[in-house]
Write a sequence for this structure.
């Protein structure tokens, strides 16, 4: 709901854009200790795509190239550059600053909706600039561990993973959003975060 409040309400009341600063501060605080945990548990856009887009999505495989740092870093630089450029033009006016964040929210939410419907709900999350930053800051923290003796190779973990990670092979885990769906789906309790 926060995404809709900022994206729509922010057009009429730009100070709502400041909510994004709180979101950003929260993820920066958590990321060094839990990696992308924020993405799977607190991210307003993640909740939005899980709840609203999942029923509309084609649920196709997320293209691997979208996970590439060759795509993610330029997107991060472009959005941060856009934000800084726009902030420099605000002349310190509170509403104009807020509108910069509202505009970013509208742009990124539009991209998330487009990719979420055409491909899979969490497609945006594979190249999200904030997710990329969290991966860089703490991708190896709070990792998923698999007890190979308990695993029965049912692949239920992979089927429920919103990021479409190969959980049972423990690959691509810096992009794990630590939502816990795989842990809950495992019939043998072979997965645990630590």
């Amino acid at each position: 709901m926060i995404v809709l409040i900022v994206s729509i309400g922010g057009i009429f009341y730009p100070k709502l854009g400041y909510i994004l600063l709180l979101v950003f501060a929260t993820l920066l605080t958590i990321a060094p200790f839990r990696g992308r945990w924020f993405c799977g548990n607190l991210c307003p856009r993640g909740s939005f795509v899980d709840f609203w887009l999942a029923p509309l999505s084609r649920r196709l495989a997320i293209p691997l190239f979208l996970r590439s740092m060759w795509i993610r870093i330029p997107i991060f630089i472009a959005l941060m550059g856009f934000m800084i450029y726009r902030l420099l033009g605000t002349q310190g006016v509170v509403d104009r600053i807020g509108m910069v964040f509202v505009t970013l929210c509208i742009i990124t939410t539009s991209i998330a909706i487009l990719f979420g419907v055409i491909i899979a709900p969490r497609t945006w999350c594979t190249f999200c600039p904030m997710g990329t930053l969290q991966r860089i800051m703490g991708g190896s923290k709070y990792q998923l561990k698999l007890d190979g003796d308990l695993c029965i190779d049912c692949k239920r973990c992979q089927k429920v993973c919103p990021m479409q990670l190969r959980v049972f092979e423990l690959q691509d885990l810096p992009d794990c959003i630590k939502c816990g769906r795989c842990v809950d789906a495992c019939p043998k309790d072979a997965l645990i975060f630590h």
User: Anything to note?
Assistant: The mean pLDDT is 94. The domain at 143-194 is CATH 3.30.70.20 (Alpha-Beta Plaits).
